[in-house]
From TrEMBL:
Main location (coarse class): secreted
GO annotations of cellular component type: extracellular region
Protein name: C1q domain-containing protein
Stored Gene3D superfamilies: 2.60.120.40
Signal peptide (from-to): 1-21
Key word Signal present: yes
InterPro entries: C1q_dom, Cerebellin_Synaptic_Org, Tumour_necrosis_fac-like_dom
Subcellular compartments: Secreted
Length: 180
């Protein structure tokens, strides 16, 4: 329901942005348009998104198979992109630069006939979990509301085991980005 309302307001705001310079004949409509303009400004809707300083996103993978102890953070070391430098490859932790809605995804491949289970953590809270076995891949996806400074990471959640990856194929990866 929230998504429907949000996109409905977004469409209205885009329309208002298009007629921003024109005069409206009806004072009631003009008042409503002004109220919607204020709402659009509060939600940052209808503005050009050319300001890269507010952008944040990353895509990282494992450069090779990695042995990870249960409860430890998976440090994805091959950085494909790190817009805003909010992902730290040394720690494996993403730190949100501002309040907002974010999307995260992670895919890991198990090694051999072993099982692997990883979870996405927001601060000290386990959110969703992915499981794979016998060279299959497990994937997780999640949209989260984060506050500035919140930490997000992937932790190995099932015995000590290998996460499979190869330099040429990058089977195991972690990505996230700011939606709004």
């Amino acid at each position: 329901m929230f998504v429907f309302v949000y996109f409905s307001v977004w469409i209205l705001c885009r329309e208002i942005t298009m007629i921003h310079g024109s005069k409206l004949a009806c004072p009631e409509k003009s008042s409503m348009v002004n109220k919607l303009k204020l709402l659009c400004d509060e939600l940052d809707i209808g503005k050009e998104s050319g300001d890269r300083s507010t952008a944040s996103g990353f895509s990282v993978s494992l450069s090779r198979a990695k042995y990870v102890v249960k409860g430890h953070i998976v440090r994805f070391d091959k950085v494909w992109s790190n817009i805003g430098n909010d992902y730290n490859p040394q720690s494996g932790v993403y730190t949100s630069p501002k309040n907002g809605v974010y999307h995260f995804s992670c895919t890991v491949m198990s090694a051999g006939k072993k099982a692997i289970r990883v979870s996405l953590w927001k601060n000290n809270l386990k959110t969703v979990t992915s499981y794979s076995y016998h060279h299959y891949s497990g994937t997780l996806n999640l949209v989260l509301h984060l506050k500035k400074g919140d930490k997000v990471c992937i932790k190995q959640d099932y015995h000590e085991n290998y996460i499979h990856s190869e330099p040429k194929f990058n089977y195991s990866m972690f990505s996230g980005f700011l939606i709004s």
